[in-house]
Structure prediction request, 567 residues.
Amino acid sequence: MSTPATARPPVAGRPSELRRKLLSDELSVPVVSNFFPIERYYDVADKVYDSFQAAFTNHNNLDDAYVYGKRYCAFCIEAIPQHNYYGAAKNKRLAVKHKNQVNQVLKLMETVVQKMDVEETERQRIAAEMARKEEEKKMKALLDRANRVRDTPSNNQRLPSQPANVEVGASAISKLNLLRTSTEISTQKQEEVGTSRVRHGASQGGDDRIIKRDPSGEERTGVPSSRYRLIDDSEDDDEEEKKTNHVLPPPVLPPPAVPVPGGEGGSAAPPPSYNQALAATATQRSGRYHRTFLGPVDDSSSQIVPVPPPLVPEQPQAKRRERIPMRQLQEEYRKAYVQLTKKGQIKVLPLDTYQGRVGQSTNGCTVISALVASRHLSGGGVCISDSSVGDVIDRQCGPLLREIRGKLGLGGHALIIPSDVHDHLVDKKLLDQRYFEGAAGGNVMDPKHMGEFLKLLGVGDDGKGAKRKAAATFFFHEHVISIVKYPTSAGAQYDLIDSLPNLSVGGQSRASRTRCVDIEALGTLLRWYTSRKFSESNCSYIDRNAWDDNMADLDPRVFQGFVWHVK
Prediction:
């Protein structure tokens, strides 16, 4: 098989190298779960392949074609082969089909890159031309302003004539004061410099007069004297202000040029860089449609902005309340669990064995959990005993594991899909199909999804099973546990049985049996049990992405529960 697309670095020196690198940085390979049928992952691959084909036929969607093509190849080459059912004979046809499609996509990807090179070459040429014109415009503006400063009459003005009583040998400080006075006058606000009123004292009749600055710095008689002359109130202040405005010196530095797209003499702003485009998509969607792992979703008819599709589906921009970070929720769930253990409402009890202690039970959690449920439902006592659980782990599950794996054509330690185990146990009459109450699943962190499972276990689908013996298998994060319910005088208690050696007793590993006094305590236990399994990358994914049913098989929050009731 050809080298995965994700293993092909951009060709150095090609015009689209940076563009493709930024797009590739948005890619990663999802993890498949062995507890979901491999056919569902092939269905996902088909949808990504269809999205690539649709983008490839539309020349405006080169970025989409590049990302979906690489995503499809990586998913088929790196992810799906990790599924334990990949080598099964019944899946050979699907494997061959997608191998051929991968080779086809890899060939088309080179065409996509060539078209990207053409686009980037033209983009770079346009950007260079725009930068040159912008620089010319700035230089022209500076030259024009410099010319206006040079030709302004006020730049040729002399200092005010000195009074006759000022001696030639006046101190340097006096001369500086005179120079400062002149400078301050020339830089005052327009209305203060252009026209101002001076009220004569009472001894002079108390009339108002206007002092007007003469642009030449001389009186009309031509005799050097004061730069100001007195005018009558009858003259129009506004007209004089307009005239005066032309002789005020401009600022030393010109204001920064701000080109207005489409404006007279302006030029359109250059297109945003890919870094800007990537930053923009962090807060809002831009373009005709937004993209998910599977493909684009139409939003509007607006112009497309070339940005890479996100690895995970973007969520609608509707307002929603701020989500609590997953790490914070983990700590809250841990505290709630510890509090109930201190109150005695949750008790952790060790078992004498664990999955894998006997080699034939390795990776047998799917069979172990179903057999525990079967023994609990069919047993004559109130609840399955510890010794029965140990017998299931060490003796009963091994032969069944070999039998089921051989039937499905799986490897020696392959994990088995829960539904395949349930079907086999029903065929062997080890699990009574009449007891099956239903299944629930979805987002383990969603109270509604988990509430449906707990309701199904606690009271049944009809709401009448509060006093009935019940059992469930609970799949989460590549592991399956069993939960058994047994009636008590106070209502019902629940035991969560985990075959993994997660409990240490006297330095020895043990499987565990955690007892909850009621359904509320079980809910607290499950929140802690599931949330503590999230890795740092899982928490980051959860914080960034809301739950999407279409992406459930690839989401770390997904769970499945199967419930049986004795009726």
